[in-house]
Write a structure and sequence with these properties.
The structure is a homodimer.
Chain A lengths: L6 H16 L6 H11 L5 E2 H10 L6 H13 L3 E4 L7 E4 L8 E5 L5 E4 L2 H12 L4 E12 L1 H4 L1
Parallel strand pairs in A: 4-6
Antiparallel strand pairs in A: 1-3, 2-3, 4-5
The structure holds a DNA duplex (25 and 25 nucleotides).
Chain lengths: ~150, ~150
DNA sequence: ATACGTGCAAAGTATTTGCAAACGG
DNA sequence: CCGTTTGCAAATACTTTGCACGTAT
């Protein structure tokens, strides 16, 4: 049920850097650091988490740059913003293969997990066709108590 | 496709006030005003929108009270928080009948509409059973360009 | 009378913006 | 070199909290 990322990870980072480069963007510093960090993740991170991890690795980045990079990556379709409703936005890489997951949030401990389901995707796709909108994407969040917090 | 609320609206407000009263809460001022305003809506509002509308009606409420009332209503299960990802939380009444909708957001003009779909609900329900979580609720947001903005 | 609710102002978070310095191409 | 990108600090946006006063019960 939980999606595991493996080999695709590093290639996402490479592809993203390459695409940005092709678009005329430069290749250094904060942007590369954020992209590489994101590429190593299995699930979504907050801007603050990204900032903290980069600092922990010794990179001297500003949180503003983290936000700026995320904003750009999001606009260009490389990362997806995820709002799980705790007042802070989360971000995760969009993998090219079309593989795609949603999120399961524990209301109690705040844990976030990913899940994927084909039937759900099909139902979403059907609905999308009937909206009259040109639907660019969708988000699904399931909220509840996780196994540990159910007791 | 779009859900229209009609007769249920006023009863939601009445029911909510009555339930709160039964729980020992008092009946006056800001709380009543917020509940009645929410009851008149077809879709979700932000705290600021609620505040502005109440002020426009001449009610002298503070935005803090609006947030406090929304927090309480949300905790008690009368309203649902909706995060459509624009940095501000939205709120809407939960109607008792179990009728239930999701949201369609125009990335361009910011418009928010409601939609409902039984097949989607069934797919969600199935997935929820397989998560291992005790799922309390779910949110679905479709993002895209609305009819007006597609051009 | 006596809590509970309220409005206001102040404090907290999360995110964005202005700007001069740093840096890649 | 030149224009992009960066870090920092200040600004903004949203939400919560502290507190004295108002008001339903």
């Amino acid at each position: 049920m939980v999606v595991h990322a493996s080999t695709k990870i590093s290639s996402w980072a490479e592809m993203t850097i390459a695409s940005l480069h092709a678009k005329g963007h430069r290749n250094s510093g904060a942007r590369r650091a954020v992209v590489e960090l994101l590429g190593r993740q299995d699930c979504c991170l907050t801007a603050q988490e990204i900032f903290d991890q980069l600092r922990a690795e010794g990179r001297r980045v500003g949180i503003a740059s983290v936000y700026r990079v995320l904003e750009q990556l999001s606009k260009d379709g490389f990362v997806q913003r995820i709002d799980i409703g705790a007042g802070t936005t989360r971000f995760e890489p969009i993998h090219a293969g079309g593989e795609h997951h949603h999120h399961l949030v524990c209301d109690d401990c705040g844990k976030v997990e990913a899940f994927a389901d084909d039937q759900l995707e099909r139902a979403l796709h059907k609905v999308e066709g009937r909206t009259g909108y040109s639907v660019a994407g969708h988000d699904v969040v399931l909220r509840g108590a996780c196994r540990d917090c159910t007791s």
